[in-house]
Design a protein that fits this description.
The protein is mainly β and 282 residues long. The protein has one domain (54-268). It has three helices and 14 strands. The chain is globular, with a radius of gyration of 24 Å. Residues 28-46 have a biased composition (Basic and acidic residues).
């Protein structure tokens, strides 16, 4: 069964009218007349290039063997219909990065053939009747690079101009993702309320573990226990830095197609997880 989500975009066309003026030569010489071949009536002028944008996004169900990772789930199940009526599908090079946290994940994709269209997919792992694990998509969020702003409200972003957005992953307001992006970079900040655990089911196991299978390169010697207040930096499957820390009942994570140094600096600028205006400090 296919589900189609349509997006309506308002296109603003700015018409720039330039005033006429007469140029004068500094040495008062009469400027030479340019020898231009007159344009023939039958010659066609090239139409100005118009940026492509997304008109529809369509998600269809793929076989489980093609959904073993968050990245594969998007590549094999999502298609976009563009403004030129072409239908495109993402490949590996269009996936900027993905992040897993708790029992969930997000994948950030740049839409093929477009300059400024990005999509964020929220995902979670499932198992079929044969106990085969695969990833499902439970949310689609689009953000296009349009008019930018400069007020980062206390955030130490690695760029001056950006667009931003806030996405609710669930209806209980316990799982949020903030996106900050420009034409080249996309940064995501997540705030996930760690669910209470049943002491009878712990059996002496740590309360919260990293999803180590989602990181590359895999490091079985790395301590998977997430201690309160300590920052942990990983390298994701797309070589993207992912920083996690646990604070006052929340898991905070930050990632993007930027340097690890930029992610660390951004993390240092965040307020407490319980701050009313999180992730903004001003």
């Amino acid at each position: 069964m296919k589900s189609i989500i349509k997006y309506v975009y308002t296109v603003l066309i700015l018409v720039l009218i330039s005033g006429c003026y007469q140029a004068k030569s500094l040495d008062h010489k009469k400027p030479e007349k340019a020898h231009q071949k007159p344009e023939k009536a039958h010659e066609k002028r090239e139409k100005p290039h118009r940026k492509l944008y997304v008109k529809e996004v369509e998600a269809s169900e793929a076989p489980i063997k093609e959904r073993k990772t968050p990245e594969e789930a998007v590549i094999h199940q999502v298609k976009w219909k563009l403004s030129n009526k072409k239908v495109v599908q993402a490949k590996k090079q269009h996936v900027l990065y993905n992040v897993t946290y708790g029992n969930q994940g997000i994948t950030v994709v740049k839409v093929p053939a477009t300059d400024t269209n990005y999509f964020l997919f929220s995902q979670f792992p499932k198992k079929d009747h044969e106990k085969r694990r695969y990833w499902a998509i439970n949310g689609v969020y689009d953000f296009s690079i349009g008019e930018m702003e400069t007020d980062a409200k206390g955030l130490a972003l690695p760029f001056e101009n950006f667009v931003d957005g806030e996405f609710l992953i669930d209806d209980d307001d316990k799982d949020k993702v903030w996106v900050f992006a420009n034409e080249k970079y996309v940064i995501t900040i997540g705030k996930y309320e760690i669910p209470p655990l049943d002491p009878e089911k712990l059996n002496g196991k740590p309360q919260f573990l990293f999803p180590l299978e989602s990181f590359s390169p895999k490091d079985p010697k790395r301590d998977p226990i997430l201690n309160e207040g300590k920052h942990y930096l990983f390298t994701g499957t797309k070589k993207n830095p992912i920083l996690y820390y646990r604070e006052e009942g929340f898991l905070i994570w930050i990632s993007g197609n930027v340097s690890a140094k930029a992610i660390k600096k951004l993390a240092a600028s965040l307020p407490k997880a319980t701050h009313l205006e999180f992730p903004y400090s001003k």
